[in-house]
Amino acid sequence: MSFVAWSDDYKVGIAAIDNDHKTLFGLVNRLHDRIKAGDGEDAVGDALDGLVDYIETHFAREERYMEECGYPGLVAHIRKHRDLARTVHSLKTLFEDDPREIENDAILRFLRNWLTNHILNNDMDYVPYITGKKKGRFMAE
After folding, report:
1. 41-69 and 15-36 are packed helices; what angle lies between their axes, rounded to 10 degrees?
2. Is the pLDDT of residue 90 over 60?
3. Three-state SS string across 79-91, please?
4. Distance CA 15, CA 113 (A)
């Protein structure tokens, strides 16, 4: 059983973004599995690195889509992305400095809660703009 399970509740209906989200779920699950299996610090560090890298890739894609459609909540959404990116980079730095100082269960809960809540409560807001059901800023009526 997955630590955080993908379901259709998380689908935004945009294939590239849904695939990114599924990948993020997989990366959080991979990190969880490495930690729970008691894998060495290198394996856990690699899983954390993969998550950090993919977060940046996903955010760039999602922000590009929001900008292209004129999503009016873009600036606030980018701020949320930057907050998470800073937090995850800080966790990575702490882990690299001393892996024993990291409370693994708290990190995993944070990542699970952030990922699921962000998709359901923030990402769903831009969907009508990207799909054309709502007109974004600067878009012809």
Report:
1. 160
2. yes
3. HHHHHHHHHHHHH
4. 23
* Inside any domain, residue 2: no
Q: Report which secondary-structure segment, H or E, holds 111.
A: helix 104-118
Q: What is the pLDDT of residues 104-128, one digit of tens each?
A: 888 899 999 999 999 999 999 999 9
∠ CA 56-34-52, nearest 5°, is 10
- In a domain, residue 28? The reply is yes
Model-level pTM?
0.90
Q: Looking at residue 124, which CATH number applies to its domain?
A: 1.20.120.50
Q: How many CB atoms lie within 10 A of CB 77?
A: 20
Specify if 93 maps to a domain.
yes
Work out how many domains the chain is built from and give that number: 1
Domain residue limits at 63: 13-130
Contacts of 128 (CB under 8 A, 6+ apart): 134
139, part of any domain: no
CA 36 and chain centroid, separation: 21
